[in-house]
Amino acid sequence: MTIQWFPGHMTRAKRQIQEKLKLIDIAIELLDARIPLSSRNPMVDEILGGKPRLIVLNKSDLADPRVTEQWIDYFKYEGHETVAVDSSTGTRVGDIPVKAKEILQEKIDRQLAKGMNPRAVRGLIVGIPNVGKSTLINRLAGRNIAITGDKPGVTKGQQWIKTTFDMDLLDTPGILWPKFEDELVGYRLAMTGAIREQILNVEDIAFFAVRELAERYWPALQERFKLDKAPTDPSESDEIVRIMEDIGRRRGCLVSGGQVDLEKASGIILRELRSGNLGRITLEAPFPAAAGRPGE
Ligand code: GDP
């Protein structure tokens, strides 16, 4: 589902989430472990306010584990507990209710001291489209639930989903809009599959992807496509196009006259990047020495 995020939609999405916050104990902010900055809503602190929050780095199966650890430290420094999960297989999703309880422990203790019966923790999953909200809800619930109505502006009755853990979830996750202000953010969202290709040109997305990979993960790119010539300067457009053409030739993407079909090659590059065939890749890191550059 593609959502057009007009200012009115953003206002309504924000309001809807704030209505839901009244019903819950903790917000679960879902980010893509490969692009924790680009997959973060720019107003998330304002929207969630002082609500207890757990950050979940999803799709960590596709991300560089070394950099994921750095992100966990970084968010801790920012004051947020963070867990890294793979919702597609369920790996470590059980850490979410455990950590949520830890975060809420004082509140739970206060309720116990007043003689109240502690109930299951109530959570709301929030995140940008395609970050894996529905997949995570299904994993936590241990069954497939048709998750609908999560369009900004569409209201429907709230229901609690019982999970297999000591945690209930609101059945409609909070949909946040991605960052738009920066071209690089758009391309990173597209590379990882968060934005549909119809919006951006496939060859342009692949160009950005190859450039980022050539800068940070050249050995992975070289190994996957059996490339022999490393770029002397990955910031040079000509060099990136040459790598794309080499990949195209390797994969038999040729048109008559022996020219490389760049569109076809681009499709292959993006498919293999997104499915993890190039290895575990993170495009943004919190500290300069790691995979990405902060703020980019
Ligand atoms: P939503 O729009 O936030 O509800 O996102 P979905 O739950 O529909 O997930 C978007 C895509 O990401 C789907 O193709 C999922 O299979 C995939 N996905 C979700 N979580 C993970 C994960 O942890 N690892 C991997 N590899 N894929 C995931």
From TrEMBL:
Keyword Nucleotide-binding: yes
Domain of life: Bacteria
Subcellular location: Cytoplasm
Pfam entry (one): MMR_HSR1
Alphabetical list of InterPro entries matching this protein: G_CP_dom, GTP-bd, GTP-bd_ortho_bundle_sf, GTP-bd_ribosome_bgen, GTPase_MTG1, P-loop_NTPase
CP-type G domain location: 14-178
Keywords: Cytoplasm, GTP-binding, Nucleotide-binding
Annotated SUPFAM superfamilies: P-loop containing nucleoside triphosphate hydrolases (SSF52540)
Family: Belongs to the TRAFAC class YlqF/YawG GTPase family. MTG1 subfamily.
Function per UniProt: Required for a late step of 50S ribosomal subunit assembly. Has GTPase activity.
This protein's name: Ribosome biogenesis GTPase A
Lineage: Bacteria, Bacillati, Bacillota, Bacilli, Bacillales
Gene that encodes it: rbgA
